[in-house]
Amino acid sequence: MNVGAQHHEIRRAGAKGLGVFATKLIPRGTRILAERPLFTVKSDRDLYPALRSLTQKDRDHLKQLSLSENKKPLFLDWAEATWHVVRGALSRPPAQTSDNSNTTPAGRISLDDYKTFLATFRNNNFNIGNGTRATFRDISRVNHSCVPNSQGNFNTAIGCFTVHAVRPIDQEQEITISYLDEHGAVRGVRQGQLFESYGFECNCPVCEPKTSRGRESERRRTAVRERLMQYAETASQRREPDLKMELELLLMLIRMLEEEGIAGRELATMYLSAAEGSLKLGDRKAAQRYSKLGLEMDEVCLGTDSPLFKESLQRMRSIPRA
Ligand SMILES: C[S@@+](CC[C@H](N)C(=O)[O-])C[C@H]1O[C@@H](n2cnc3c(N)ncnc32)[C@H](O)[C@@H]1O
């Protein structure tokens, strides 16, 4: 299911700057946004050429995105930024095919502009998979929550990063995604990664240490982490993996994510692994149940046109149908 622009709008989100809000009820599984990146990079070396190839119009979009208070660059220090600009100035500019600012690369970048672009990139890039980071005109306005109501995933079939509602979103509610790669981490780890990568301190409902929700969340996540660490210690002494124990741990992780209200690909993938584990242990009924839950969750956060969803369907072919 897709919704048009009339279902969401970009407006002030208090201290977070701008944010994206639902203008009417958005049902679970809705594709709220689908957008091609302004540009993508795999490493620091890609950044200058990528920026240089942008059209003037896209550079203008980029300049309008938010800047972090803490402007420490993600990949490069300023000396490196200077080096990239100098090297860029010595190399041949991208071909000028026409005067059209919608299609022609804008070419060389001044050092000041490059530093601004760098800081803007730092604040507005998301991991879109395979070590690639991307910046978007609208999706870069979506703020973070450690218990988000939506999830972003790259869909190679349509060349777009999509944002899907992983639970119903009420009118006026802010649309949020998680900027983190791992969703079950404890507060200190989450805060450290967010500050390091984006320069902000999260105060979403589970990051509030003084509320009962925040305390309960931290207790739950810490207990799971300790249990996993205990298992990791004993696992290194075993010759064979303990399948039953691994399935139990996986189900514990699933329960934790569900109790936390975290939905999305991570949970879907855990269900699929639980289906495979259950089948290996001879429990066909449980395998079918987990397979169904995993595929449903994958469809919600990816959509049926996503190659990742098709891979999951393929992966579950060995699970007998109910
Ligand atoms: C990708 S941008 C999101 C859109 C941004 N708010 C804007 O005005 O364009 C990321 C920046 O938004 C702010 N932000 C996002 N999520 C936040 C949160 N949960 N708490 C505080 N600030 C947040 C931070 O400044 C962060 O560096």
Structural description of this entry:
The structure is a single chain. Among the domains are: about 160 residues, set domain protein methyltransferase, domain 1 (Alpha-Beta Complex), CATH 3.90.1410; about 60 residues, no CATH class. Helix 3 packs across helix 4, helix 6 packs antiparallel against helix 7 and helix 8 runs antiparallel to helix 9. The chain is globular, with a radius of gyration of 22 Å. The strands form 3 sheets. A 4-stranded mixed sheet has the order 1-2-10-7, with no helix packed on it. The protein is built from 10 helices and 10 strands. Helix content is about 45%, strand content about 15%. It is an alpha+beta fold.
Provide keyphrases for this structure:
322 residues, alpha+beta, set domain protein methyltransferase, domain 1, four-stranded mixed sheet, three-stranded antiparallel sheet, 10 helices, 10 strands, 44% helix, binds S-adenosylmethionine
Radius of gyration (CA) equals 22 Å
Percent of sequence in beta strands: 5-15%
Largest sheet: 4 strands, mixed
Count of individual beta strands = 10
How do the SSEs run, as a string of H and E?
A: EEEEHHHHEEEEEEHHHHHH
CATH architecture title of the domain at 5-94 and 103-177: Alpha-Beta Complex
Query: Per CATH, what is the topology of the domain at 5-94 and 103-177?
Result: set domain protein methyltransferase, domain 1
Bound molecules: S-adenosylmethionine
Structural class by helix and strand composition: alpha+beta
Spatial strand arrangement across the major sheet: 1-2-10-7
Helix fraction bin: 40-55%
Poorly predicted runs are: none
Distance between the termini: 26 Å
